[in-house]
Structure formats: structure tokens, C-alpha cells
From TrEMBL:
InterPro entries: BON_dom, Lipoprotein_DolP. Residues 1-18 form the signal peptide. Keywords: Signal. Residues 44-111 form the BON domain. It comes from Marinicella sediminis. The keyword Signal applies. This is BON domain-containing protein. The keyword Heme does not apply.
């Protein structure tokens, strides 16, 4: 009887958490189902991203602004640093991690790291770019296969796509107001 009461108590306590856990698992499952990478590679990329971010945080000044994204072992570093040494150090921190095939270092040297307003505009620009992919009318195109990172009004595109898909994505995004540059880091299926 005590075990049953304990089970009911635990269930009641966790009942609010259950939808969150189940929802999170469903979203991850859906993302993997639409991804052209294997589930193992998706997980490896998440581990690489977290590991590189952690290594950079340990070794660089807090006033740098670095975005890290990994796709199929290719690591993108985008954002701002104050010194060439920080730029090189960030790239080295990424390059030494297991599973990293290539590092694309797009870090900009700046005198002053951008403020919250600039960062908010970049976030908005990234959301606008993602939403614009829904308007692409191309047979078999799935916008969830394109990973978008924005920094300094520049849009970085990663994913495993066909050349036609890549061209359509770039064409759609390069015309958005506020986009100064589009950088393709795609891998191609054809």
C-alpha cells in the first residue's frame, strides 16, 4: 500500500513535467526524422557544439561574442572578438575536439563588442530568414533541413541540401531587408 501511495504521489508531482519531457522528446524525434543526417550524427553535432562552446568560454575573455554551430562535423564560429589571438584561440579550441572535420572561422575583429540592440536585430533577422524558407516552392524541400545562424547582419547557412535547394534558399534570404551577406556552408546531396 505504501508503494502505491508513493507511486501516486510521484506521478502527481511529475504530472506537470511529463508533457514537457514528452514534448521535448517528440520535437527532437521529429527533427531527426526530417534531418538527412543519421541520429548519431545529429547527437554528435550537439555534443561538438556544446564542447566547443565550453572550451571557448574557459579560454577567452567574457567580452567576446561567439556563436558556435556544428553540422556533420563542420564547426562554424561567427560573431565578434577583440583580438587576433582570441580569434585564433577560438579556432584552435574547435579544431582539437573529437569529431570536428573542419572549422569555418567567420569571427570578426572589432574594437567594441556589439550591444544588446544589435544582437536583438540579428535574432530578428534570423527568425525572418527561417520564416522566409516556408515560401520556397520546390518539390521535396524541407526548410527544417537548413540551419541558420546570424551575426553582424550576416546569415550563415548549413545543412545537407541539393544544389537547387541551396540556390533557392540563398535567393530567398539575400533579398531580405537587413541582410548584408549570405554565407553558404552547405554540403550537397548531388
Amino acid at each position: 500500500m505504501k508503494n502505491i501511495l508513493l507511486l501516486i504521489l510521484i506521478t502527481a508531482t511529475l504530472s506537470a513535467c511529463a508533457p514537457v519531457l514528452i514534448g521535448s522528446a517528440i520535437v527532437t524525434g521529429v527533427n531527426i526524422a526530417h534531418d538527412r543526417r543519421s541520429a548519431g550524427q545529429v547527437l554528435d553535432d550537439k555534443i561538438i557544439t556544446a564542447s566547443v562552446k565550453n572550451e571557448i568560454r574557459k579560454s577567452l575573455e567574457d567580452d567576446s561574442r561567439i556563436k558556435v554551430e556544428s553540422y556533420n562535423g563542420v564547426v562554424l564560429l561567427a560573431g565578434e572578438v577583440k583580438t587576433t589571438d582570441d580569434r585564433i584561440h577560438a579556432e584552435d579550441a574547435a579544431a582539437i575536439k573529437d569529431g570536428v572535420v573542419k572549422v569555418v572561422n567567420e569571427l570578426k575583429l572589432v574594437d567594441e563588442i556589439s550591444k544588446l540592440g544589435r544582437r536583438s536585430k540579428d535574432s530578428y533577422l534570423g527568425s525572418k530568414a527561417k520564416a522566409s524558407l516556408l515560401k520556397i516552392d520546390l518539390a521535396g524541400f524541407d526548410p527544417t533541413r537548413v540551419h541558420i545562424t546570424t551575426a553582424n547582419r550576416e546569415v550563415y547557412l548549413m545543412g545537407l541540401v541539393s544544389r537547387n535547394e541551396a540556390d533557392a534558399v540563398v535567393e530567398r534570404i539575400r533579398h531580405l531587408r537587413g541582410v548584408e551577406r549570405v554565407v553558404k556552408i552547405f554540403e550537397y546531396t548531388d
